[in-house]
Amino acid sequence: MSEEQRRQLQQQLWNIANTLRGKMGADEFRDYILGFIFYKYLSEKIQRFADGELAQENLKFAEINEATTKGKEYIAALEDAAIGELGYFLKPSELFHAVAMKGSNQLDTNGAGEGHNFILADLTRILKNIEQSTLGTDSADDFVNLFEDLDLTSSKLGKTEKEKNELVAKVLVHLDKIDFNLSDATADVLGDAYEYLIGEFASGAGKKAGEFYTPQPVSTLLAKLVTSNHRALKSVYDPTCGSGSLLLRVKREAVSVDKIYGQELNRTTYNLARMNMILHDVHFADFDIRQEDTLEHPQHKDLRFDAIVANPPFSAHWSASQLLMSDDRFSVYGRLAPATKADMAFVQHMVYQLADEGIMAVVLPHGVLFRGAAEGHIRQYLIEQMNCLDAVIGLPANIFYGTSIPTCVLVFKKCRKNPDDILFIDASQHFDKVKTQNVIRPEHINKIVESYKARGNEDKYSYVASLNEIKANDYNLNIPRYVDTFEAEDAIDLNAISAQLIALDKASHATDATIAAFCKELDIAPPFATTS
Length: 532
What we know:
Strand order of the largest sheet: 3-2-1-4-5-7-6-8-11
Helix content: 40-55%
Radius of gyration: 31 Å
Number of strands: 11
Low-confidence stretches: 107-114, 207-211
Number of helices: 17
Mean pLDDT: 89
Shape: globular
Distance between the termini: 85 Å
């Protein structure tokens, strides 16, 4: 698929999404359109799989008559095969195309009469059947309650059942016309389109966007950093995974990732992350996304990961309960992060989960670099006792949705090749301004990554600071202390300025004289005082 065709597809999907825009907010109609796209994907995937299984029978899945004995035998056999391979099952009558056709009044309803194109009840039942088809199987955790945010009874879809049905049918019919090209295993068309929509919804959701989306350039930077030395990963983990986009970006940058792990607090966003994994063709056995509070109830505490990436909610509140002082993640530090700023608590959690040979990259607000009290104590312990901070990278302000604050990336390794120093990179002035948002481009990302790999000094950009220097600065990591970006202003020639002022004064007197002469001819007083 060409770039132009990709853009056209994205625009088509956004136009379909806008069918719902007038009815509800961006974060609400996001759940509907992404849910419908996911249903279409599951339908097309099961159809392709079943058609392959039926190829020797010279039969198509959609043509099976479910009412006949033979048809039921086919369905039973295909369900067993699909559950093992794909993790779920849909009957031919439950396929997206069949429902869309019924909704558009084009399906042969055998004289069902008025109301035969009413699809809301069918759709509700089908989505529930998808989830129930996985019960008792290895994929159950990945499909349970997956469609719970797609409420087809909501009054936001319309005042009457007829209005709701017409709106949903309209969306399905439009989606049905789009070819996601699932036959091309090398082109992740649907996955890209899904990511595009998530990004568009994030840009329109303001502050709420931070709950589920990391801007793609930032995701790319983190992914490139954690794959800079090893591109074949056994595991990657994100403790605040949102929609899962950051984890998928690591998978894209790596040569291989055996298993993806994540945890997400928000239930709706957790569902979005699971859909996102499946849409990107991550097999249900190859990801483990959990829904819980990471700091209070970590779900993967016994595991250690090759790569960890995260964009935790900035300065989030947490319990900071003294009971957590007995938790191995925090106990060695002797202090807990403040209840009103959980940034360092997330760092402590991730460092604990990092494998000895692993690498971790996390986006945080600049305050973690210099704030004192408990945060200063934790920062000093990470550097002085654990010596696991490898690099500090300053990013431009205003690159995240909903906040304009400047941010930084901290890179951690437990077994560092450069244990006597920390690399500082100031990339805060390297961006393009697009409307009201600052954007870091591929060239900016590549410069950061190459500088991280080279680990050298570059005037006004990077500096390798010894641990003694950092100790002398009382473990304050504020980047301007290490990377001097001061630009001296051009020297001002005061004699030349004086000469210009004298020339201006002479010109002003000449102009006054001309005006005075005109005023005298007109027999009016000049608009300024005159000297005798």
